[in-house]
Amino acid sequence: MRGRGSILLVAAAAILAVAATAAGGATGARARAVTFMLDWFPNPDHVPVYAAVRSGYFSDAGLRVTLQVPSNADDPLKLVAAGKVDVAVNYESNVILARAQGLPVRSIGLLVSQPLTTVMYLKSSGIRRPRDLVGRRVGFAVSGLEDAMIDQIMNSDGAAKGSVTLVTVGFDLVPALLSHKVDAVVGAYRNVERVQIEMQGQSVGMFEPERYGVPSFYELVLIANDAALARRRPVLARFVGAVARGLRLTAAQPSEAFNQYVALNPTLNDAFNRRSFEATLPTFARSQQQQRGRWAAFDDWMAARHVIPAPVAVDQLYTNVVTQP
Length: 325
Fold this sequence. Notes:
325 residues; alpha/beta; D-Maltodextrin-Binding Protein, domain 2; 2 domains; five-stranded mixed sheet; 12 helices
């Protein structure tokens, strides 16, 4: 997740790299090497990936996968675009932004197929509907998309654009909210910040963008660059197929999948990770068939809200490399 949990980065990165390489090594010298980078440090969003690693699904597909953890949240997209990483986890919005800037990346598969981001507030604040935020302070981490989301949510309830005061709080969304530095935060995740706050005994309210006029979008996708897709499509298809197997295992046997995750990340076997996984479970992709209409709607919305200058050609944004019911 974007910029969260950097204190866990070094230890988690070491565990991840060793575990993934060892699992891939069983396929022998003829295995196809694939470098795969997470979007950020290991967290419950990645449980299906760990399930695939530990269950040997990449090895079964004839792949020797080396998983990497980025040192910066911008690295996965940039390194894929530059051809230094084969596949990475990223966000639908980032793919659209990248294409608008001329970067040759596209989605080839899905990990989390529903939005996780929200506008979040404490119920004790008296906020009940978007219009209640008029004149209040809203914290954010990343400008552009998050500004557009809060405007859309406010507009949907009859409030004028710019009717809230936006406050930069970086990725310290929870401290900013709990300390009342801000009245709400945009960009908080319903499976992360909500869990963190509830574990501190506070009740949380959320405005979910897809309920307030923002087209539903794929939260986490698997990205590759155009050159790799043209040159190694069968290999990438096998990779996405192995992730799909991990997703199916996670849906069918969530406890087993979570155990695979913590077996490779022992320090993450705690109450927060368990509750976060439970909140994430319903959002994992059930199919690898990305929908053209869904990409087009979010692309058009980003252009209409001036996040990008104009809509990107939808065929440049994604490719379905595997067929799955």
